[in-house]
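INSTRUCTION: Work out how this chain folds

Fields: amino acid sequence; protein backbone structure tokens

Chain under study, with its fold:
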Amino acid sequence: MKRLLKILFIAIMLFSFNSCKKDSGQAVVDYSTYQKNYFDVDHSSYVRSKLPSSSPTSSTSPVISNVQGSNFVLTGGSNIISFESSNTISNVIIGLSDIDGYYTVDQTYLTQISSNNYTFSLAVSQTLTLQSMSFRIAYVDINGQISNYYILQASEIKNGTGLLQINCTWKKDNDIDLHVIEPNGEEIYFGNRTSTNGGELDVDSNPNCALDYIESENVTYQHGALVEAGDYTVKVNLYSACNVSSQTVVKVRAIYNGVPLTDANGNSTFNVSFDPSEANYTGKGAGAYAVTVHIRNSQRAPLGVISTPIASVKINSTLLTKKVVFTKDYSTTGKLLQFQFNNNSNQQKNKNLSRSKNL
């Protein structure tokens, strides 16, 4: 009898365990794991829970529509997402279809394009563990109602990350070029894709308007490449507008030793914008100034410790309006980084036009 009761107890426990496992679904991911394996969003709050359900449908239910974003992502790059809302927004929800955990972004950190059109960007991890991602995007209105979810599919593009990675991303079908000028003066761009030090432009998108729709370019220092001390000047250039007749916003990111460089306000992506008339069909020396990464020897703080900013920065819409110097110390590598930002009003743009892609 005791043996029968013992067997019955074990059977009940196994059934209960399997039922709980089935009901609970996938384990909820903590923030550090989520941002390391998938993506992060500036100025967001991470919620360690399943995505909330949409509110019941009614005549006042919020609706998200005209959602646009890239169907390709680069590790260490960005994805720029825009959408339209039917109701007044309180915050945006973004997560993944197959992963529990999600971000919320308050409407004050969204860029408002028009009365009901907004945009924001997410930062893809350098150590992305998914080859394809199903982003789920919704918003919460001021009455607390949750809109329908839009699912944006995106596939990973294989690219280099390395010790130093510099990336630019945009959302229009035109030809944007990334230029990185090393401390020794050598310029990495489409006409000189690998420098003497080993820095490499490993992704060149939409060349000469041959659209691949990746719309992201990437410079990486890996496989023994030398990241020498000094200033790395980053520019982006509208080589050709192709058939685009509206403004293009380009997001620039820089990552050193696995750490995204941010300003004093926590921004890890920075904007340069172009009107179609600014296309210049120029190679070497062209481009609007985006950022300078300064690397020098240092033995200040342990890895990952952020020192006090030397200056502050103000954000006007999506553009930086003041210069800022922000410092991160990496004593284990003997390097000190300073990030310097200029606004668009100080950018010098090459207006030399030609009809062919010059090197």
